[in-house]
Design a protein that fits this description.
Order of helices and strands: HHEEHHEHEHEEEEEEE
Structural class: alpha+beta
Strand content: 25-35%
Number of strands: 11
Strand order of the largest sheet: 1-10-9-5-6-7-8
Helix content: 25-40%
Number of helices: 6
Amino acid sequence: MRVIKTLSALVLLATSFMMSPAFAADVFMKTGAPTSQPIGHYDFCQRLPRECNIRSSSIEPITLTQQTWDMILSVNHSVNSRIRPDTDMNIYGKEEYWAYPVTAGDCEDYALEKRRELHKRGLPLSSLLITVVRKPDGEGHAVLTVRTDRGDFILDNLRNVVLNWRNSGYTYLKRQSSYHTGRWVTIVPSDNIVVGSVKARK
């Protein structure tokens, strides 16, 4: 535990250096126009409409203190350890079924659970955004982006380390809007990648 805390302090210290003017633009995602909702999230919203109608009055990123950083690391590790990876087909008998996991789940289920846990601990939903990416092998993937005043950080079920989005090795496609939990926006720059989605709601 002492080693983990020491490493977390060093990582947080390193992020403060990234916030110099030369690096500031790169540590934050730049979002673009409204875009299509992933089909799995659309279905999730149909089942749980209250989850997807929350509007944020403020979209300022959270202030990243050492205590908040330790909490982010703890939740990422705890959910990764507690939930067993499995496919939607094996768990629910269908593809692209987004849900809060109980004992098993796939990537978007991990992201949903981490979002819920961090929100319970006081972080605003406007800074906890499910994000669709493409892995280096071309496979689609979902992670949780945590927006902070020191950059956008990625909570991933494939690793326990929490990295700035630029250091994850992924191609970023879209993420939830900070203003509205049921809306999605593009991430700039992005490729014209075809993913399972439904038409964006106005």
